[in-house]
């Protein structure tokens, strides 16, 4: 009998096929599944070792060598637990499931700012969807600015344009500072952060004056500009007005958690109390129901993953042990059940599914995590939560996805 020959059994995960392909003109979701892994994996600092000995800045070939499964393991996975999901592709454009938003971004690139305005206006009083669309379009100005300049020139006092400007400046301020600790942030970075935050605050003040009676989003953006030295009383005043307009706004309370966490101006206890209060009062399906899960991710960041001198393997093991505490696991299961019991707002549903997938990986629920990855689909914009445990968004997503699909041993996830 001749030797059994297996030719290219799983082309989707060949190392040479793992370079990311980012296409800005493809239609979301209707396109065929991508097969890429990003050409560069984000991480906290160059050369830093990562959990399991990996460098978060290594390229796709190195990642492929580390996680590329053998033919037998792939065949076993296919026979025992269904077909392999498409390898995730990190493509912020095709990850957009909001088709009207996707179309508006396409038209804006072509110079039609009226499409951007219309898609925001069409969100009506779904304030989270409106905020999501404003945020997405504001980030488009990083690479395509002409359409927004035309909008400002044509309608400088348009309330929607002013909100997009405020969000754009706030985003630029965060980018200028970066995500490093204060001792790793340069004077120039801080200067840019303070200057742009002040400009964003001015734009927010104008947006507040122009906003409708129930629109909370200018107050949501204003909170993000206050980390440069506002008092707690000032912050709480803006927060309360935002709450009056939308008691369970996801972005509003996300900023409140950031302000009240130990990393900034609060404590673990204050952060958890804020998250649990709003989650408990929020209706089933509301995005705010899962804010306690975000609080847990902030907790492990500060307790186990903070600083440059820690042991990465030990830090990851501590994260696993923490989430596997019976009281922690039971609490999070309860919040997930409440969120699933309602109709999730699609504006933030993909981000929240990533939080859940990460949690299931940390508590060793392979099938549950794989089911959530299947919900997420092949195109992904990795959430910040992955960096809270792994140090890099894309790196963490790749490692967890491989484990969830039975292609990586459980030794260190």
Folded structure, characterized:
By secondary structure, the protein is mainly alpha-helical. The protein folds into three domains: 8-97 and 376-413, no CATH class; 99-244, no CATH class; 247-345, no CATH class. The chain is 57% helix and 1% strand. Strands 1-2 form a two-stranded parallel ribbon. Helix 7 (159-177) packs parallel to helix 9, helix 9 packs antiparallel against helix 10 (232-245) and helix 9 runs parallel beside helix 11. The radius of gyration is 22 Å and the shape is globular. The model is unreliable at 1-61 (pLDDT under 50).
Task: Give the topology, please.
Elements: H1 60-67, H2 71-81, E1 89-90, H3 99-109, H4 113-121, H5 127-140, H6 146-154, H7 159-177, H8 187-210, H9 217-224, H10 232-245, H11 250-260, H12 268-281, H13 291-304, H14 312-323, H15 326-341, H16 349-362, H17 366-376, E2 379-380, H18 385-390, H19 393-404
Parallel strand pairs: 1-2
Helix pairs in contact: 3-4, 4-5, 5-7, 7-8, 7-9, 8-9, 9-10, 9-11, 11-12, 12-13, 16-17
For the CA atoms, what is the radius of gyration?
22 Å
* DSSP summary: helix tally: 19
Q: Determine the structural class based on helices, strands and strand pairing.
A: mainly alpha
Write the H/E string, N to C. HHEHHHHHHHHHHHHHHHEHH
Total individual domains: 3
Shape type: globular
Give structural attributes:
single chain; 413 residues; mainly alpha; 3 domains; two-stranded parallel ribbon; disordered N terminus
Offer a concise description of the structure.
This is DUF4034 domain-containing protein. Residues 20-62 are annotated as: Disordered. With 413 residues, the protein is an all-alpha fold.
């Amino acid at each position: 009998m001749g030797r059994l020959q297996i030719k290219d059994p799983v082309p989707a995960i060949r190392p040479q096929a793992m370079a990311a392909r980012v296409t800005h003109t493809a239609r979301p979701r209707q396109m065929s599944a991508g097969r890429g892994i990003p050409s560069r994996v984000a991480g906290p600092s160059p050369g830093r070792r990562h959990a399991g000995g990996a460098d978060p800045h290594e390229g796709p070939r190195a990642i492929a060598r580390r996680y590329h499964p053998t033919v037998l393991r792939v065949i076993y996975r296919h026979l025992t637990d269904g077909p392999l999901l498409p390898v995730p592709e990190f493509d912020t454009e095709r990850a957009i499931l909001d088709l009207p938003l996707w179309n508006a971004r396409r038209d804006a690139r072509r110079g039609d700012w009226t499409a951007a305005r219309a898609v925001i206006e069409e969100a009506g009083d779904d304030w989270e969807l409106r905020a999501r669309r404003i945020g997405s379009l504001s980030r488009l100005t990083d690479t395509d600015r002409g359409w927004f300049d035309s909008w400002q020139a044509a309608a400088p006092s348009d309330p929607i344009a002013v909100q997009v400007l405020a969000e754009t400046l706030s985003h630029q301020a965060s980018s200028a500072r970066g995500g490093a600790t204060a001792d790793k942030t340069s004077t120039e970075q801080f200067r840019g952060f303070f200057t742009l935050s002040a400009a964003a605050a001015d734009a927010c003040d104008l947006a507040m004056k122009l906003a409708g009676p129930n629109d909370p989003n200018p107050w949501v953006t204003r909170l993000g500009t206050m980390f440069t030295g506002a008092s707690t009383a000032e912050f709480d005043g803006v927060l309360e007005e935002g709450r009056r307009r939308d008691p369970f706004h996801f972005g509003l309370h996300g900023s409140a958690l950031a302000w009240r966490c130990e990393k900034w101006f609060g404590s673990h206890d204050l952060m958890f109390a804020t998250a649990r209060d709003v989650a408990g009062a929020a209706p089933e399906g509301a995005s705010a129901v899962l804010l306690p899960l975000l609080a847990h991710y902030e907790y492990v960041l500060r307790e186990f993953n903070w600083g440059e001198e820690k042991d990465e393997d030990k830090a990851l093991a501590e994260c696993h042990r923490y989430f596997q505490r019976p009281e922690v696991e039971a609490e999070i299961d309860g919040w997930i059940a409440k969120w699933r019991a309602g109709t999730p707002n699609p504006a933030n549903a993909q981000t929240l599914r990533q939080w859940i997938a990460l949690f299931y990986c940390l508590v060793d629920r392979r099938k549950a995590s794989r089911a959530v990855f299947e919900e997420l689909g092949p195109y992904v914009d990795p959430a910040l939560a992955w960096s809270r445990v792994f140090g890099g968004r894309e790196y963490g997503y790749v490692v967890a996805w491989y484990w969830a699909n039975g292609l990586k041993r459980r030794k260190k996830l």
